User: Fold Antitoxin Xre/MbcA/ParS-like toxin-binding domain-containing protein from Pseudomonas matsuisoli.
Amino acid sequence: MDSVYEGQLAVDYGSLLDTYGTSRNDTFACQCASGWFGLVYAALGILNSYKKHRDQKIIVVQIKEKFGKLRIYCGGTNAFSEIALEIIEMVSGHVCECCGAEGELANDRGWLNVRCGEHHLTTSIQSVEASKLMMLAHGRKLASVILDIVCQFGVQSAAWARLPATALGGLTPAEVLSTESGCDKVMVLLSRLNDSVLD
Assistant:
């Protein structure tokens, strides 16, 4: 990930990041391209929320791409924060690692990666110019939606995020959450589900 994006993560969530043994001026290094900045920002926002409100001692030791998806390794989490990270990982399978646009998980000569139509031939994880503000907005909204999902469905949250929903055009919430407008659609669905339970 580009150092500008890593710097933003360090400013906003530095207390979560384990900088032990890093070589870049004690800056935490993400081993993925900048297109996933919004997803990483969302994940750290969720972990920070759990850390503050649940008095957890969470420390993130590694953020990387593995088998084409975003993996975040940390200590001190509970079942609910782990479920939230699992949903982030599912969503990463639908977000281009290069630019943050909607993408698809593909096998390129044995290597799994997520690319949009524009970057489907890009084999390097070098990031293209991606909009930091756009990814920040998506990351903040995504964190809020995932926290709502976990609050509403608890330990069944990840299973719910994998189920195709008629209200989402037959797509799964994990697929739809790959965009900011998709986050809005899932929020509407959650609201409708919540209202029907309360009625």
